[in-house]
Amino acid sequence: MRMEYVHGYSAEEGTRLTDQAATLTELLHADTRYPPGSQVLEAGCGIGAQTVILAGNSPRATFTSVDVSAESLAEAERQVLEAGITNVSFRQADIFDLPYVSAHFDHVFVCFVLEHLPNPAGALAALMRVLKPGGSITVIEGDHGSAYFHPDSEHARRAIQCLVDLQRQAGGDSLIGRRLYPLLVQAGYRDVTVSPRMVYADATRPALVDGFTRKTFTAMVEGVGERAVGQGLMDEASWAAGIRDLHRAAEDDGTFCYTFFKAVGLR
Ligand SMILES: C[S@@+](CC[C@H](N)C(=O)[O-])C[C@H]1O[C@@H](n2cnc3c(N)ncnc32)[C@H](O)[C@@H]1O
């Protein structure tokens, strides 16, 4: 079982996901703690970049982390073992065909997954089925339309748009952050709240400049360079200028902004 998605499953992408999770730990995870004894499903755990943080923050909850990619699951298992975390079990499974009885889990957590799915509403419905009445779902997604930076650059904006277009071509939506509220409400979740989480990086926050501007966002855009140029979305020189200008925003007089959206709803 293996699916293709815009970022792929390369070692570089694994490193990027780990850098992303580590850099954004406080911003995205500070208010997520699960009670002792609760059963939590992490859907689309990838290589375990969020799993290590999630399970580490709620050591007395029990996590089941699933993904369609066996290769990613093997790496996730390795990371969790290395971190000395013992409250997670892994299983290869498809969100749309979960091998669990209805109302099996107390809570569901899903991060950076819906943006890759042609049918995010269907995924939310499938996740609701395995959630107990009164249980919570937490969904975290980005929105590439929220990226702006200084110095501004037409080339850099076009390069980001290539990623948006390629992800759409692959059936996903990298602008999904702004849609989380209606998606959850329409799927039937109640008491839905969405909180925007803004990253702002300048030279006074060197860890964020390096971990987010360079190693998370710019690395993600760079990852689709071959396809963007190969499909003629941008010519090679304009693409190189776009990437150069994104790196420029990580220099001492540059700034970079991006907003993640974190939604919580109840079944
Ligand atoms: C961008 S990665 C995010 C991984 C992790 N949640 C994180 O934040 O680092 C998206 C993951 O979703 C998984 N995925 C995509 N469609 C899926 C599906 N239908 N069922 C389960 N996992 C899926 C992919 O295999 C991939 O590992």
Could you outline the blueprint of secondary structure elements for this entry?
Layout: H1 11-23, H2 25-29, E1 39-43, H3 49-57, E2 62-67, H4 70-82, E3 88-92, E4 105-111, H5 120-129, E5 131-141, E6 148-150, H6 154-169, H7 180-187, E7 190-201, H8 206-222, H9 225-230, H10 236-248, E8 255-266
Parallel strand pairs: 1-2, 1-4, 2-3, 4-5
Antiparallel strand pairs: 5-8, 6-8, 7-8
Helix pairs in contact: 1-8, 5-7, 6-10
This protein binds S-adenosylmethionine (SAM).
Brief rundown of the structure:
The protein has ten helices and eight strands. It has helices at residues 11-23, 25-29, 49-57, 70-82, 120-129, 154-169, 180-187, 206-222, 225-230, 236-248, and strands at residues 39-43, 62-67, 88-92, 105-111, 131-141, 148-150, 190-201, 255-266.
Structural account:
With 267 residues, the chain is α/β, with parallel strands linked by helices. The protein contains ten helices and eight strands. It has helices at 11-23, 25-29, 49-57, 70-82, 120-129, 154-169, 180-187, 206-222, 225-230, 236-248, and strands at 39-43, 62-67, 88-92, 105-111, 131-141, 148-150, 190-201, 255-266. Strands 1, 2, 3, 4, 5, 6, 7 and 8 form an eight-stranded mixed sheet that branches. Helix 1 (11-23) runs antiparallel to helix 8 (206-222), helix 5 packs across helix 7 and helix 6 crosses helix 10 (236-248). The two termini are 29 Å apart. S-adenosylmethionine (SAM) binds next to helix 1, helix 3 and strand 2.
